Amino acid sequence: MTLDATSLQVVKATDRRLKRAERSKLASFGLHAALITASVIAVFPVFWVLVTSFKPDAKAVETTPKLFNESSLDNYGRILDGEKGDFLSWFGNSVLIALLTTVIAVFLSATTGYAASRFRFPGKRSLMWMFLVVQMFPFAVLIVPLYNILLTLGLQGLSIGLVLVYCTTAVPFCTYMLKGYFDTIPSDIDEAGRVDGLSPFGVFWRLVMPLAKPGLAVTSFYAFLTAWGEVAFASAFLSAADESKTLAVGLQVFVQQNRTEWGHLAAASILVAIPAVIVFYLVQRFLVTGLSSGAVKG
């Protein structure tokens, strides 16, 4: 009787394990199917833009499109040769503005975030709240006051003025991000540096900054993207001259009043995306660590 009861319990336990395994397989299949579907939905528009970039404008909007119908590199050649806008000047302007924005914004954010993490001063909590509140304002609301400020300073139409505008949007988020990351670095490192005779800035620059590479990578990537693909501020604050435009603004030359040059627009979009992909590749190994560590403490 005891053996029968024990055997029955073993059978029931085995059945439960089999049912759980079956449910786990179904759940795993459903999860993978959902991820594959989401990946296809996310990647397909980019793939279609890439395919369109190799087609003539007339073939790019066919009612029954063919994947590689009359594909060629003509669109890329005309763009790079300057036949369709001054692409190389736009590229140079975008690189300069994006790099300046990244360097200035990350430096200001790092110093401010370190001060907020390590020191106590009046208004510290209000400052951090203000950084969050600033992120809630849409870009359209800020265009008029920022335009008036740049006009007063004599920076309207200049690249440095646009860099400062981008810094006003990048610095608040980057500061909050880096402050959270600096909180995860033990303050004993600072004390050890001061014992060795380093100044507060020396401790920050020589000890803390090398340890904060993941957080700096995340904020650098964010600051770069803020300046690289932005359109509204660049259209409002730069000169209307063709040689002063950035890439994102220059793409508008392919959208005319009566027609759109889809092939050239797609080719230019692919060229614009390449530097962002390169920057992402350079900092990708730091992104997960930086985002997770910066989110631990606020």
From TrEMBL:
Pfam families per UniProt: BPD_transp_1 (PF00528)
InterPro entries xref list: BP-dep_ABC_trans_perm, MetI-like, MetI-like_sf
Keyword Ligase applies: no
Main location: membrane
Superkingdom classification of source: Bacteria
Residues that span the membrane, as ranges: 26-51, 90-115, 127-147, 153-178, 216-241, 261-283
Membrane topology category: Multi-pass membrane protein
Annotated ranges, domain ABC transmembrane type-1: 91-283
PROSITE patterns, sorted: ABC_TM1 (PS50928)
Subcellular location: Cell membrane
Keywords: Cell membrane, Membrane, Sugar transport, Transmembrane, Transmembrane helix, Transport
Keyword Transferase: no
Matching PANTHER family: MALTOSE TRANSPORT SYSTEM PERMEASE-RELATED, MALTOSE_MALTODEXTRIN TRANSPORT SYSTEM PERMEASE PROTEIN MALG
UniProt similarity note: Belongs to the binding-protein-dependent transport system permease family. MalFG subfamily.
Protein's recorded name: Sugar ABC transporter permease
Organism field: Lentzea rhizosphaerae
